[in-house]
Amino acid sequence: MLSHHHKNSSLWVPGRPPVTQTLTQLNPLQVFQREQAPIEDFRHVQPNAIHQAERYCTPNYKKYKNNRISTTKYTLLTFPFKNLWEQFHRWANWFFVIIIVLNLFPEFAAFNRFLGIIPVACILIATAIKDIFEDLRRYRMDKKINESTCLVWDHVHLQFRRMQWQHILVGDYVHISNNELFPADILLLRSSDASGTCFIETSNLDGETSLKQKAVPKTIVSLSEDQNTKFQDLHPKMPIDHHCMHPSKSLQEMCGYVEDAQRQKENFSKDHMLWRGCRLRNTTFVEGLVLYAGPDTKVMLNNGRPKPKRSQIEHLTNKFILVCFLILIIMCMIGSAGSAITTAQNHNRNGSAIYETEPENPWWQEGIYSIGTFIINYQVLVPLSLYITVELIKLGLVFLMQQDVHLYHGEKDQRVQVRNLTIPEELGQVTHVLSDKTGTVTENIMIFRRCAFDNFDYGTPAGVHAHQRLPSTGLHPTDELRVRVLSTWRLDESLQNFFTNLAICNTVVVNREHRDMLEVGQYEDGVYTIDNSSFYTVTEPEFLERQERYRIHKERAIRFVDEEEPVPNWQAVISNSDTTLDAITSEDEEENSDEKSAGQRLSRVSTFSQRLSHSIRNFLPRISSIISSPASSVHNFRHKHHKGPKTKKESRYEAESPDELALVEGAAQYGFVLQERGATHVTLQFPDQQNQRIEVLRVLPFDANRKRMSIIIKGKSGPILYTKGADASMLTRLRDGATPPVFDESENETSSARSIGASQMSPDKARALLGHYAGKGLRTLVYGMRRLTWDEYQEFSSAYQFIEMDTTSEREMMLAQKADEIESNLTLLGVTGVEDKLQEGVSDTISSLREAGLQVWLLTGDKLETAENIARSCGLFDPRHPEVNVSTRDDLPNISGIGRCNIKLNPQALTILKENDTTLLDIVQRSASVLCYRMTPSEKSEVVACVKKNFGGRVLAIGDGANDVPMIQAAHVGVGVSGNEGMQAVMASDFAIARFRFLKRLLLIHGHWNYDRIANTYLYFLYKNALLVFIIFFCQFYSLYSGESPMDPIYSMLYSIVFTSVQPIIYGMYDQAYEGRLLIERPSLYRKTMEGQCYSWKLFFFNILDALYQAAVCYYCAHIWAVNTSVGLWEFGFVLATSMFLCNTFHLALEVRCWTWPIWVIFAFFTVLHFVFFLAYHAVIGPWSGLYGPPVLVSFRLMMQASFYIVELLTVVTALIPRLLYRVYLSKLEGKLGSELSFCGLSI
């Protein structure tokens, strides 16, 4: 029974407050009131456990918000009012409400006063239904989150009990196990790690999948040291008062202090906080106090939606609608003037009109009243239903995009994501593509390729070049360096320091398997309790057996290799030596012995290390000959015994960036294996399989200004500072020394190692090597060290710790300045080169985009040489054009007369570009491609803004990391690539794809289709409504401007929202000018949509004039047919309505270029529906309806006459001849008559 017990089967549901207390706290007006600013400077939180009262009686319950969240927009009570309020933020809705009000007055009424409500009501109800479904989706997600569970301390039962998140209060103690989410913003008080640290993954908060270390405040680290002590025994030792800042959305802002029972204070910061939505990783458990709950947490405060984007088509459509409104006003004025004049002249209407009305008001009053009547009649010229129709079309286009199997990535099991439903047509108008490099056009899977220190440059093995695509899991160690490590590592100080720097100066975390003993439950007084359930049948031996099984499982490390591979034994290879690394603190014999045994249990390290050790054991008999001739023997041995890399089942390390992971794994190749990382120590395994515990004194984290990271460790002779960083930030901070000969790049590159001079590498050598590495497209770092005296360290540490206590906004800047002071007078240790492989299909994609007329920009933070190499290999630089570099204003005169080129810009050139320098703007505008190097994230967004401002067009920005978010949000279209740097770029984007190569299909096919479909739908909709209005306008010439229409009023109301509503939706979803294969083969076809040829002022006026012509044909054909006959009002109206409908239908049929079965079905259905409606309507209508001359069986009688079909045929043919000639002209002009009129399938 126990094995099937689920941990959520029973929950602790706290008691609810009395109804009287709830009613007292209820404020009905709080929905409309703004939240008042807090009076106190700090929020004061005391643990709820110290209050011996019900939870709803604690001060925290009364003062602060609970943990229940709600992201819905409405409630059952507020929905009708709030939804209408939001819908009437659209001015078009107010316009139609005014129409309804006007129609209520008999003086203005053009038809039945209640019929005018139907169109507006349909649109409002349809929009409300859509909003309801959207809000229901939010409600279900909120409910799922609120009903998540975690362990909360119950001071009554003195145990942690499982509770839903929504019941958690500020001041609760919570217990979180490994891989669980944090339910609120929590101050860390205790960790399973004895050093009081833990690691969290913040991907739900900021999109970053890297682990971040958090620590317990120093005064209570002792609570984490004894893991066997129960919480009820530790609780009295915890702080009783917590003062923190009021809720803030900034992730970098957090300050406060805690006080214990003796009123001793200690500050805490964001480094001690666990944010809601983050996940505990690589730590067995943590315990903490809730400081912010529900709406006050960081993740909820940052839950705001980005600024909405609007497409260029929508902007232009708004202008078109203004023109339509102007046309409406002109027609109203004409009608009003005509009504007033004809009334004043008392015109004899006998025989001058087909139908008559008798005005009852004076001429001037009749003219004024007729304005309102004509506004009602012509209201559809402002297309209310257009918005909802286009929204439905966009939903259909999004569905088709997501179903495209060619945009599906099988390895990641990801398809294209459309996160912004309002701008799918913008993909068809992109003129500039601004792309990040790392992780976007490259794999962001780093491989340790080259390193240089001391006298040698160690590269990839002979015959293996950096540009070759090697397996991401196969790291190719250099044989010469392996031999050097095996033979001299104990005596080689430069080698030790270089690889120690690689292995420990980082934020890489070693994975371990974690089992929370609290999950086992507890056994007291013969009762086994787990979560909130008790079992009386479990005996104590059974409980102890279960507990021991968990404990054994907990002590095991994660195994990364197959069991058949033997564990390496370097002791059999290397002769014993008493020499140890000077940088490492010597431990006593007993501690070393313990660590050795523990290290052997945990030393099942990377696949490479074991394979290497196995090779070395077989390698020993020939070690002397190999050393004497490394170039040949090692190469032959490698080909004979190397079986290739094995695929890892799981990664051993968690890293903040792939670069750090590659460097740590690179150090592990040569026996320097990072085994453990804590807050105050790291454990490093050396090539002899011995683990050494290194005490960490201080870590100086990386920041964008310093571009360095440092770690200070305790050595035998004093503190040692290890530093790594970019070349520009490192080479200027080296101590003065001798300058050995410069590395010669012209040496034979087939050798894997080369002598580069004396034992001490000089800055000039480093620069030469860095240029050499960058020329091969490698990412470079420089490594240095500095030996400190204890006085120097104590002075620095005191100042640094004092700044850490600061709570002002300048704290981070002052910490960076202090770190900058000690990171000087460095000794150069060496340099490394890491390869970032190019993604598949990048070159072809960039080439196609360039052929389509798009200008591609590549933005990267790399140095020029690395950026140039990537630009050439990915096809960014067009080989037909020269390359020019602009770094200062002095470069401009030399290139002012150059033609089309490939231009390279640095941050200084960007400053010139932002100053609107006409020379540089002209050069950039005619460039084939642009490379921007040494760019920071903020500078990337500035480039986007500059392109938008100075070059026009539509800008697309694509990136994969959090540093690309400003650029993605600043662009007209933001595309996120779901890579290895988290999901923040995807969350901030409008569209998300798995690989860069998918951008080609996304733009050239779906962009073209989306724009072409939406543009033609807009034009058809404007034409369709204008046709109806112009027909009514022509009727006024023969009704003495009375405002009456001969068409049935019900049909007139339903015409736009029923009879002609679905056809444009299906047309807008499935029609296409070209099939996808042709758009890929001929990228130049994209220029048609990019230049806006499908939607322009010329086409708008052409369609309006065409509607005017067709309206005249429809009316006058019916007029000629009916004049001097006995045709009545309803017969004439039926013929006119049918002519209008058929002209509309066949007009759209001429526009269709890809006939699919949905279009056939819809056209046929609504054509039949038109006649069925009139037959049914005229069959049931009678004298009881109150209509003048009720149309009893009018349509039936007319459909029995041949003259009806003749006039309809003549009307349609005459009306559509200009449109047909226009389509034939375009088809012949583009040479695709046959392809456009062909039958197309539904496949994409």
UniProtKB/TrEMBL annotation:
Extent of Basic residues compositional bias: 636-646
Region (Disordered): 634-653, 738-758
Enzyme class: translocase
Cellular component per GO, a single term: plasma membrane
Gene Ontology molecular-function annotations: ATP binding; ATP hydrolysis activity; ATPase-coupled intramembrane lipid transporter activity; magnesium ion binding
Highest rank taxon of the organism: Eukaryota
Entry keyword Kinase: no
Compartmental location: Membrane
Binding residues annotated for ATP, in chain numbering: 436-438, 660, 702, 724, 779, 860-862, 934, 940, 963-964
Protein name: Phospholipid-transporting ATPase
Obligatory cofactor(s): Mg(2+)
Transmembrane segments: 91-108, 114-133, 320-341, 368-390, 1021-1041, 1053-1070, 1100-1122, 1128-1150, 1157-1182, 1202-1222
Gene3D superfamilies from the UniProt entry: Calcium-transporting ATPase, cytoplasmic domain N (3.40.1110.10), Calcium-transporting ATPase, cytoplasmic transduction domain A (2.70.150.10), Calcium-transporting ATPase, transmembrane domain (1.20.1110.10), HAD superfamily/HAD-like (3.40.50.1000)
